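Teaching assistant here, posting this on the class forum so everyone can see the example we discussed in section. The complex has two components, and the goal was to see what a joint structure prediction looks like when all of them are supplied at once.
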Amino acid sequence: MVIKVENLVKRYGDLIAVDHLSLEVRKGEIFGLLGPNGSGKTTLINCILALLKYDKGNISVFGKPMAPDAYDIKKDIGVIMQNVAVFNELTVYENIDYFCGLYVRDKGERKKLVEEAIDFVGLNDFRSFYPKKLSGGLLRRLNIACGIAHKPKLIILDEPTVAVDPQSRNNILEGIVRLNRQGATIVYTSHYMEEVEQICSRIMIIDKGRIIAAGTKEELKSMIKVGEIVFVESVELNQTLLDAIRQLPNTSLVDYKNHNLTVTFTKGRNNLMNLIDLLRKKNLGYGSVYSKLPTLNDVFLEFTGRQLRD
Amino acid sequence: MFAHVFRYRMKCFLGDRVTLFWTMVFPILLSTLFLMAFSNFGKATSFAGIKVAVVNNDAYQENRMFQETLAAAAEKQGDEEPLLSMELVSLGEAETLLDQGEVHGIILLDPDIKLVVNQSGFNQSIIKSFLDQYQQVSASYTSLFQMNPGLLASRDTLKDYSADYDFIVEKNPGKNKTDITVTYFYALLAMTTLYGSFWGIRAVNEVQADQSMKGARINLAPVHKMKMLLAAILAAWIIQFVELTILILYMSMVLKVSFGSQAGCILLTCLVGSLTGITLGTMVGGLIKKSDGIKTGILLGITMTLSGFAGLYFASFKYVVTKAVPVLAYINPANLITDALYALYYYDTYERFTLNIILLLAFAAVFCLLTYLSVRRDRYASIPSIQEGD
């Protein structure tokens, strides 16, 4: 086990930021921590990293108790925080070299690692640039390079794609998967469910410091009643027809707004076919029809009654 | 590891243009402005002969002794300006000159000596003192000659009677001539020394996870943060010392401000003062958990107040404070720095200088201790700098 958290409680005055939370991160996995802003993700990470005091619980990393002076553990951890933490007075190369030098003493080895990190994040053409001259996406890449240059066994990324353009976001996500393939265990926190779904092998959804659900994305989706959501655009319906739709098998929720119909079905077969047959029998014209499988947002919605981004 | 951190801290500080401006360029500009302001300091108070109108009437023409005395007072003696600037005119002309403000007074023999003025003031008082002294001395001579007519033959004896004697000898206690303007320059140096606290704030902020993102990242590294802080303080100390040395060289070589001849002791003052300034910054940075701007504002307030008490705005204020509240002079690092430079400039002995240096070192030790106590914590209760997206 790379990380083990048992019954962790962290309070800020009367506010419980982390509420009796336990988790385990296994070697070699990409563990996703998903939750809305203010759910306690960063607080949990900071407790794991021994930056924050906590009220109750046990935390171990690589099988040893985590502490501020546990330098033998810290040397194998790389952290990328959501805010960029680099020195504006140092170039790209110097920034990576500085942070890498806090972990690796040997100059020759460090030089090789810094070159690898620059290559990994694709900053070869910007190595002599100062951070102020870099775009937001390049700056994020530099931030990542500073956190991973020393080749850590455990990499914790706390919302690394906030305020990043789609192209840079894809680069970052691909990089994380590559790091994992190279042997690093990854803990990835985000409030973007698509990212977590895309790269994480196991996911924990938290809200108000509590675990809402945990498992693989398939396991999480199987925990909820929603099986399929069907959308029908540009359709004219009256109350009688809406009632008829509600009578279809597995129908859970019917929503009709601005001539657009959304029907949520619980798990079952032929839901889409049943709906289309009904519309045809009533001789109703309609525009596009499509269906989608439940997302992690639906999981979050069903468990909390709120959208993930509320 | 220490060398690695030190090298990069040095590089970061040298690239910090804003702090470099305030700790080096600004004092150089300010010292130049001081020089421009003080260039007329002596000239503004230089003495010019007091303009008087002497009424040229019969009584004046008959009094040869008075004529000679006035002529002597209106004559330039070497480099010294004459006491009087005299115009011999008629009574009517004299009154016109007085009304027009061309002269400060009218000397009229009628036959007694009279002084006519249309206002009282410094110059009028001097003319009156001069005339009173003349009357007193001439009355003494008259009395002496009446009692002893033989004295007329002895000019030396007469000289003895007419000479002014000072029974108090003015002696400079130190090796250099008193110059009030050096107080301002020394206070400016003290202010610059305490501006080293800006480096101190940065040094401490960048090792505290609850103060900056960089601090958080550094706290995650397998390095003791006190080692990181020490490397930063050492880098800041060297930079601040070099900046002060440049400022002193500029003041002494370009502005011709006198610092005496003990360069080693002056540099020691800068070295110790820099350490005190930087550790003041680390202490404030460590104790006050506010934004960088608020901390800098607080330090600026402290620095300017302490420098003010050391004579930055009004040189005499330093002496007023020292006389009224002696303790305040000893607990003000800025005053200790100016006093150390003062002691080197004026005194041949080192007692006062040594005391100031020891007190500065004591302050640095206290600031270091308080910095350590405020920074040493292992974990933080909250980390606002990285809590935003939680």
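For the discussion questions: The mean pLDDT of chain B is 83. Chain B has 17 helices and four strands. Think about how each of these relates to the inputs above.
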